[in-house]
Amino acid sequence: ELRHRASPWQRNLGYPLAMLGLLALTGISVLIVCFHVLELLLDDAAMPRGIQQDASLGQVSFSILGSFGAALQVVLILYLMVSSVVGFYSSPLFTQLLPEWQDTPLTKIIGNCVSLLVLSSALPVFSRTLGITRFDLLGDFGRFNWLGNFYIVFLYNMGFAGLTTLCLVKRVSWAVQAELIRALGEDG
C-alpha cells in the first residue's frame, strides 16, 4: 500500500538510490572486514587489543584515509547499528517484541529497552572486532581476553564476511530473478 501511494519520483529514483546505498555500505563493510582478515594473517598488531601508543585524541588519525576514513567509519558504524536492530526485530524469535502504536504494555517496553541497551553495548566491541574502527571511546574494550585470541577474532571476521556476502548475493539474485520472471511473464 505504501508503494502504491509513493510518488513516481520516490518509486523511480528514491527506492533505487536507497538500495544502491545499502548495497554500497554492505559491500564496503565486507571489503573492510576482508582487508582486516588479511591484516590478521600478516600482522599480529591487527588484533583488536587496546591502543598501544599514547596518542592524544585529535593528534593522530585512527583511520588510514584521514578525515574521509573517519567519516566512513562513522557511517559504517551507524549502518551496522541500524542493520543489527532491523535484523533483531526481523528474526522470528523477537517479532512479538515489536512495539504497537498506542497499545504496548509496560513489560514489552522494558523488553525493548533491554534489547536496545544490549545491542548498543555490543556495538563498540562488534565494530572493533571486525576491524572497522580502532577507537575506544570511553571504554577500554581492548582489555577483553578473547580479543587477543587469534582464532576467535579470525573466525568472527570470516563468519561476518561469509554470511554477509551470502545474504547479499541471495537478496540481489532473488530480486533479479523476480524481475526476470516478471518481465518474461508479461511478454509470454
Overview of the structural elements:
By secondary structure, the protein is mostly helical. Among the domains are: 15-43 and 65-96 and 107-134, no CATH class; 149-187. The chain has helices spanning 2-5, 8-42, 67-90, 106-129, 150-187. Helix 2 (8-42) runs antiparallel to helix 5 and helix 3 crosses helix 4 (106-129). The longest helix is centred in the C-terminal third of the chain and has 38 residues, at 150-187. The mean pLDDT is 80.
Which SSEs are present, and which pair or pack?
Elements: H1 2-5, H2 8-42, H3 67-90, H4 106-129, H5 150-187
Helix pairs in contact: 2-5, 3-4
Membrane topology: Multi-pass membrane protein
Organism: Corythaixoides concolor
Protein name: LMBRL protein
The helicity comes to: 55-70%
Strand content: under 5%
Shape: globular
- What integer value in Å does the Rg equal? 20 Å
Subcellular location: Cell membrane; Endoplasmic reticulum membrane
Organism: Corythaixoides concolor (Grey go-away-bird)
Main location: membrane
Membrane topology: Multi-pass membrane protein
